[in-house]
Amino acid sequence: MPFSAVGSYQLHSENFPTNLNTVFTGLIQALGRLQPLGADQLQITYGDGTDGRIFQDLALGDSVAVDGVCLTVIAIQSQGFVAVASPETLRRSTLGQQSADRWVNLEISLRVGSKLGGHFVTGHVDGMGYLQTVTVAAQAWEMGFHLPDGAIARYIVSKGSIAINGVSLTVADCNPEGTWFTVAVIPHTYTHTNLQQLQPGSAVNLEADILGKYVEKFLYAGAPLLKHSPAATTEISAEFLAEHGYL
Fold this sequence. Notes:
The protein is an alpha+beta fold. 13% of the residues lie in helices and 33% in strands. The protein is built from 5 helices and 12 strands. The strands form 2 sheets. It has a 6-stranded antiparallel β-barrel with strand order 1-2-5-4-3-6. Strands 7-8-11-10-9-12 form a 6-stranded antiparallel β-barrel. A hairpin with a 5-residue loop joins strand 10 and strand 11. It is globular, with a radius of gyration of 19 Å. The N terminus is likely disordered.
């Protein structure tokens, strides 16, 4: 239904809580145009050439990753939808810092039975990074990014996974601190996402691989293993994780 005919639905985030079990794959399904509507609402209109079948089952309360940010749908339109974004989301992502009427990457949350490509992406952005360099080499675009936030940088590892504006990519190289890294973007990904529109200095949303966060918690918080594990009383250490193939 069009946005003007929402009727009795109250457009507030508490009426459509985000599904905590939502997960994405980082494989972008379409591009859309973003337009702010008030302080906490965003209108997304599907781009030209978007296959409407991708979104034909979209319903109120569903989750959609918009430039890698998990948002809740609060209204369905004929050629798009309206989503709500909390002040925290706007502060921590490019959704609150870039100009209106711009292209954004779109992905519907993973459904049971869907193909799993890329890597598990939660849509909970860790922070922002900035494009530094772009070079073309061997049918790929090599893009270098700078991370001012050290809290994110510690999860950046060579050959690890990273979501940039919701796009699942592999870290090609990084410095020891993780504050700078590069990715290689193949032509299909480059031409079907808004990565092609980035310029040096452009801000991007970053989400580190959630597996690294769990390993860090086990390693430093001493979280116990499953109680039925024969090693349930074994202390979690770097040596233990390496021995069992986690490092």
